[in-house]
Design brief:
207 residues, Jelly Rolls, four-stranded antiparallel β-sheet, 6 helices, elongated, DNA-binding transcription factor activity, HTH_CRP, DNA-binding, transcription, CRP-like cAMP-binding protein
């Protein structure tokens, strides 16, 4: 259907070592990546490391054709798991090839791309929700009641240590705490946090 970049000698081959970030989440790109060979991890990176793997693909494979068709940013981070060979097809050329397809083929590919993107976005969203739930559970387990009926949590450990207990990156813990604070579920400064809405926090925790 699409002309493969590997059949076009004018598109140079790029080589990337294992660990190289090929695409970042939320990134708009002016090209579409075609994986000639090698293996690529799909998921969510934190601090430059793949923390949550959602899938793995091996070449030959179009890495981000679905988001390119729908003109969306990348829904996942893409990291080379092995040494990879890939080619970058300019976005305009990719879309011209798509526009040249029969209309029924265009409709089919758009529907498939939309389904893939929706499933991927749901999976990434669940990862974020899972991190929030684990953090909320930890806060509730370590909460202490005060004379005024309020619940407080004294952070006696460093955030890095707490994050390790929760199985998330320190950056993820900071982001989740910031979100909980923005939603009014935690308050306070320094090492003392108050839980003004324990019922709502229990809902986040799934309790």
């Amino acid at each position: 259907m699409f002309p493969l970049p590997c059949s076009d000698p004018s598109i140079p081959v790029e080589v990337a070592a294992a660990g190289k970030v090929l695409r970042e989440r939320h990134q708009h790109s002016a090209s579409v990546l075609y994986l000639d060979s090698g293996r690529v991890l799909l998921g969510v990176c934190e601090d430059g490391v793949m923390r949550h793997q959602l899938g793995v693909v091996e070449g030959p494979f179009w890495l981000d054709a679905a988001t390119a068709l729908l003109e969306r940013p990348s829904a996942v981070d893409m990291v080379a798991d092995t040494r990879v060979q890939l080619r970058r097809l300019p976005l305009e050329e990719f879309r011209r090839s798509f526009d040249a397809l029969p209309e029924p083929a265009q409709i089919l590919l758009r529907d498939m791309a939309a389904g893939y993107c929706q499933q991927t976005e749901v999976a990434v969203s669940r990862l974020a929700q899972d991190a929030e739930a684990r953090c909320a559970q930890w806060l509730l387990r370590h909460a202490q009641g005060e004379g005024d009926g309020a619940l407080r949590v004294v952070l006696k450990q460093r955030k890095r240590s707490i994050a390790a207990q929760l199985g998330i990156a320190p950056e993820t813990l900071s982001r989740v705490l910031r979100q909980l604070r923005e939603h009014g579920l935690i308050a306070g400064t320094g090492n003392v946090l108050t839980l003004p809405q324990p019922g709502a926090l229990r809902a986040v925790a799934g309790a």
